[in-house]
Amino acid sequence: MTGPNDRFLRACRRQKVDTTPVWLMRQAGRYLSEYRAVRERAGGFLTLCKTPELACEVTLQPVDLLGVDAAILFSDILVPLEAMGISLAFEEGEGPRLEPVRTETALEKLHVPDPVAETGFVMEAVRVIRRELSGRVPLVGFAGAPFTLASYAVEGGTSRNFRHVLGWMYGEPGSFRRLLDLMADTVILYLKAQVEAGAQAFQLFDTWAGVLSRRHYREFALPATAKVFGALKGLGVPMILYVNGSAPFLEEMALAGADVISVDWRVSLGEARERTRGAFALQGNLDPMALYAPRAVLQSEVARVLAEAPPAVLVFNLGHGVLPDTPRESAVALVEMVHAMGRKEI
Ligand code: CP3
Prior knowledge:
Layout: H1 7-12, H2 33-42, H3 45-50, H4 52-66, E1 71-72, H5 79-84, E2 88-91, E3 95-98, H6 104-109, H7 115-118, H8 120-133, E4 139-144, H9 146-155, H10 163-171, H11 173-197, E5 201-206, H12 214-232, E6 239-243, H13 250-253, E7 260-262, H14 269-275, E8 281-286, H15 295-308, E9 314-318, H16 328-345
Helix pairs in contact: 2-4, 4-8, 9-11, 10-11, 11-12, 15-16
């Protein structure tokens, strides 16, 4: 019978569920004091990512503390970039810093890493987490989508206007496509290794593709993303595509080959469903800011999201990640609300 241990995977496959499954992007993080304590013990964020037992501990925290219906591997989308040969550091309070890749010579020096030999700590974390979860809830693996990874590699970090990466796209579209292709090949091997290690679904995060025009999404980001899903379809696990700021090109997103379309809060799930012809499970799309609202407002926002998607096709999530100063009681209350109201919807 369906229950907490399989409602997430069933909803991804558009099968009946006992209640709406819910998990939150960035559910493990600084808004939990338990997370901050483990990061402190590790001595830094990257060390935390590279120590499978500690990564496991923080992966399980939201499962225990919030009661979410899926665990997401604790790691970062930038980990494979470091393995490609781009130096990476996280400075306290500053976000990621990478050595920018801005020339064809720099591009030629990058390589597609062997995920087991060069990021074996990620695969080991997946195995440890699966063992510790022992079937309580499924484990979601993830990677950055090619365009978002290219943005970090070229900008050298988070950017305000993406001048360098968009400059490359306009100026040298041929070599820019090679860069995206290199990212796609890296992600294909990396996600395949995660699934072989035990990941039961995966999500591709395209955090920055929303800066692209519809035309450029179609010409550049979409083919690289479609290459990834095309190569991994045969693994048989649900494949989720999240694009932040996807409203202008939902129709294109539907062509990528994903099983689940994850959208932000800027479009309603009803509109997303129409524009993707009802062919997908949907994930989303509560505004993370609703977690700062009074409880009654949060409740009506949750009810609104639930009412916009028919039962059995919705994986409840936020439209983007949990922010570091989110009140944890709101996250706990959110999960309870979805489970309680999601049941009534069915
Ligand atoms: O969702 C989870 O709980 C799993 C772990 C996870 C992290 N990052 C941990 C993290 C996942 C899935 C990510 C993905 C990620 N990383 C994305 C895509 C999702 C999104 O938010 O759009 C992006 C763009 C990154 C890159 C990144 N990592 C940035 C820009 C930053 C700095 C900003 C910040 O919040 O500090 C990180 C660091 C990071 N990744 C933290 C965590 C918990 C905070 C590190 C810390 O100070 O402890």
